[in-house]
Amino acid sequence: MTTTDIDATHVSRYLRIERAAAPVRANREVALLSNLIGLAIDRGEAKHNPCREVRRNEEQPRTEPPPSRKTYRRSPPWSRRSPARRR
Predict the structure, then answer these.
(1) Model pLDDT for residues 2-50, shown as the tens digit of each residue
(2) Rounded Cα distance, 70 and 12, in Å
(3) CA angle, corner 54, sides to 10 and 1, nearest 5?
(4) How far apart, in whole angstroms, are the C-alpha atoms of residue 24 and residue 29?
(5) Domain housing 24
(6) 40 Cβ partners below 8 Å, 6+ apart?
(7) Sign of the alpha-carbon torsion through 44, 47, 50, 53
């Protein structure tokens, strides 16, 4: 299957049926597909992006508060260090 073979019904089916058990993950995967098709459009390999025609799954914001200072102090020292920089 090429980018020109993908249409909005394929994307919608993927979101609603194939990945129904993981709706947020499906949104991320469709976002990736949309970016890839965008690159194909830039390269002249596709005419339009069918991902833009499909409504994404609804997402709920995270409700878990950030860790408290007390929890942070109990974490191991190695987890509080800055990551090593690449050169």
Answers:
(1) 878 899 999 999 999 999 999 999 999 999 999 999 999 999 999 999 9
(2) 45
(3) 25
(4) 9
(5) 3-58
(6) 3, 46
(7) positive
What's the CA angle centered on 22, arms 51 and 64, to 5 degrees? 110
Domain membership flag for residue 71: no
| Tokens of residue 67, six digits | 């860790």
| 37 domain residue, yes or no | yes
Task: Please tell me the distance from the alpha carbon of residue 87 to that of residue 77, in angstroms, as a whole number.
Answer: 24
Quick check: 3 and 37 in contact, CB under 8 A? yes
35-71 residues labelled b (16+ CB within 10 A) or e (exposed): eebeebeeeeebeebbbeebebeeeeeeeeeeeeeee
